[in-house]
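Researcher: Here's a chain I'd like modeled. Treat it as a single chain, no partners, no ligands.
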Amino acid sequence: MYSTEDKILAKMKKAKGGTLFFADNFISIASSNTVTKALERLVDSEEIVRVAKGIYTRPATDKILGRVLPSIDEIAKAIAKRDRARIVPTGSYSLYKLGLTTQVPLNVVYYTDASPRKLKIGKQSITFKKASAKNLSAIGEISKLVIQALRTIGKDNVREEEIAKIRTLLQSEKPYHLQHDLKLAPEWMRKLIGSIKTSTANE
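Model: Modeled as a single isolated chain. Structure tokens:
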């Protein structure tokens, strides 16, 4: 007779290491209360890791690094997928993702169209902040980060080296996505990003 823990672990082992699971993923196995207790026992026995409240994983294994836990971005995207929500990295995290700063923020903030919430992830936290549809409408993986990064830096504080870095990054953005996102940006950003696009095309 297989226990609830055995069934949960078997399901998790079918997925690759590092895959994120929510307690709700196991409601077909047992009641919510039974699943929660089984997950706690699996954490206590170190079979799995709790990355945040209600979120679990069997860590991937690297030959050099050992156990590797999912990144903040992977956790945020998994939550967004579960909630069928859109998210956009903002503030200092958008700067970090673009390589405009090397400092990893302790509180990572995402705009979302789902419910606002805050999760503790080890020494860091993820904050989902309710935002307008316009702030979530950008479609370019790079250009949407650029818009948020420039908003964080501010119109009068953008340095030449940051512009140069953004110019290089935007070379990899899909032209249609960039054109779409330009329409969503404030005028001063459109002028800056537009000039970057023009100079990129001329290089």
